[in-house]
Write a structure and sequence with these properties.
The complex is a heterodimer of chains A (113) and B (113). With 113 residues, chain A is mostly beta strands. Chain A contains no helices and nine strands. Chain A has strands at 9-13, 18-23, 31-38, 45-50, 53-56, 61-64, 70-75, 84-92, 107-112. In chain A, the strands form two sheets. A five-stranded mixed β-sheet of chain A has the order 1-9-8-3-4, with no helix packed on it. In chain A, strand 3 and strand 4 (45-50) form a beta hairpin. The mean pLDDT of chain B is 93. With 113 residues, chain B is mainly beta. In chain B, the strands form two sheets. In chain B, strands 2, 4, 5, 6, 9, 10 and 11 form a seven-stranded mixed β-sheet that branches. Chain B is 0% helix and 50% strand. The N and C termini of chain B lie far apart (31 Å). The chains are: A mainly beta (113), B mainly beta (113).
């Protein structure tokens, strides 16, 4: 499972776009990139998952360059309720369902009024 | 709401005692994974159950054991509690062989005094 590196913390203001970059230099061919969001005293919640190029859903966008050694989670027009810890995970989702998740320390995003 | 339930919500124990935590995954999810999350850190994988057997295990001592029932619900047991076991314990449900994400419950906050 590839190790990931992401900023410890970030600050933003309501209405701004936030981009959180994750580095995963040793990503393997079968690895996917997944982002989770976690509020205090709650379990992590899936945000988005991708393999290459760009993925977009109703919550966020995920940009993955061609070499796949990094990825960027983009949150458009954040609000106070987006204040949370964001985790970037890399792993093989096709490994027979043995989808053990390896979390790092995550990025603590604080959105200010 | 991820449809995953955990009980109890909070628990206080003293050193040396034993504790049992319970988890019911989302309907149709046949695999249950348990994670320990210390304050300020990312969740750490404990073990995973499928078909009532432990399939994977993280770097946790034998004091941590589990069980899965025919209805896919699961228990986490911790014996000989010590202060370092104080944490948020999360369970996550998933479908074996699926590329879909894991769905986490709200967790059980365990405090060991």
């Amino acid at each position: 499972l590839a190790k990931t590196t992401q900023p410890i913390s970030m600050d933003s203001y309501e209405g701004q776009e936030v981009n959180i970059t994750c580095s995963h230099n040793n990503i393997a061919t079968n690895d996917y990139i997944t982002w989770y969001q976690q509020f205090p005293s709650q379990g992590p919640r899936f945000i988005i998952q991708g393999y290459k190029t760009k993925v977009t859903n109703e919550v966020a966008s995920l940009f993955i360059p061609a070499d796949r050694k990094s990825s960027t989670l983009s949150l458009p027009r954040v609000s106070l309720s987006d204040t949370a810890v964001y985790y970037c995970l890399v792993g093989d989702v096709f490994s027979g369902g043995y989808n053990k998740l390896i979390f790092g320390a995550g990025t603590r995003l604080a959105v200010h009024p | 709401d991820a449809g995953v339930t955990q009980s109890p919500t909070h628990l206080i124990k003293t050193r040396g005692q034993q504790v049992t935590l319970r988890c019911s995954p989302k309907s149709g999810h046949d695999t249950v994974s348990w994670y320990q999350q210390a304050l300020g850190q990312g969740p750490q994988f404990i073990f995973q159950y499928y078909e009532e057997e432990e399939r994977q295990r993280g770097n946790f001592p034998d004091r941590f054991s589990g069980h899965q029932f025919p209805n896919y619900s699961s228990e986490l047991n911790v014996n000989a509690l010590w202060l370092g076991d104080s944490a948020l314990y999360l369970c996550a449900g998933s479908v074996r062989g699926s590329t879909d994400t894991q769905y986490f419950g709200p967790g059980t906050r365990l405090t060991v005094l």
